[in-house]
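Note to self: keep these together.
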Amino acid sequence: MQYLLSGDSLVLDQSLCNGCGRCEEVCPHAVFSVVNRKAVVANRGNCMQCGACRMNCPIGAIGVSTGVGCAAAIVGAMRRGDAGAARCDCA
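Structure:
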């Protein structure tokens, strides 16, 4: 599944990456892979910009703006008590 904005705000600084693989473990949509002991953005279009990777990167090599894209649309609808309206027009 690809998401609206397709991870536009996702930034990975490979020079900081220590290859721990936490981003790959916590990402719900397999956006990351670890190749030659460095994380790579393998599937940017799968990114829903939830921020799990950023929050779990122990050295701060990942940046992503949460509160945008599909994750924001779904969480916003749930907070309003209108989970049936949780649409983000994913492609």
